[in-house]
Design a protein that fits this description.
Layout (H helix, E strand, L loop, with lengths): L4 H13 L3 H6 L1 E8 L10 E3 L1 H8 L2 H4 E13 L5 E12 L5 E13 L2 E9 L1 H7 L8
Parallel strand pairs: 1-6
Antiparallel strand pairs: 1-2, 3-4, 4-5, 5-6
């Protein structure tokens, strides 16, 4: 498998669709950082290190049943380790069965085939409304 940032991004999306959270988390470097600049009060804006990422992400499929990731666009930057990605995720909220659809923009830094930094710009208000105010994990 390629370590090119675009390939790592697409591999991560496929792991999310397969609900293979352990595999998705393994894409992150040991000292990786996930930033969530738009996180609502009471939710982390920064998750650092693979152990914290594991705790934050491992139960994601218990909240959201993501069935499709579409409109994937990758923008390469002047820095060969950094890409900007756009995509839409849709599926269902597990607790309620309500449809889920949120658009994302993220800035990813990938070193040696691992996600070193993931800055996630998503709409937490729309996601919280879908989840009835419950804990949102992007």
């Amino acid at each position: 498998m390629s370590d090119h940032p675009t390939a790592v991004f697409h591999r991560g999306m496929e792991l999310l669709l397969a609900k293979d959270m352990a595999g998705f988390i393994a894409l992150f470097a040991e000292d990786a950082v996930l930033e969530l600049p738009f996180a609502p009060p009471g939710q982390p804006r920064r998750v650092a290190g693979r152990a914290e990422l594991h705790e934050y992400l491992i139960n994601y499929p218990d909240l959201l049943d993501v069935r499709e990731i579409r409109d994937r666009t990758v923008h390469e930057t002047r820095d060969p380790e950094v890409i900007v990605v756009e995509f839409a995720a849709s599926g269902f909220v597990v607790a309620t069965g309500r449809p889920y659809e949120v658009r994302y923009i993220a800035v990813l830094t990938i070193r040696d085939g691992r996600l070193a930094h993931y800055r996630d710009y998503w709409d937490p208000i729309a996601a919280q409304e879908l989840l009835g105010g419950g804990l949102v994990r992007s």
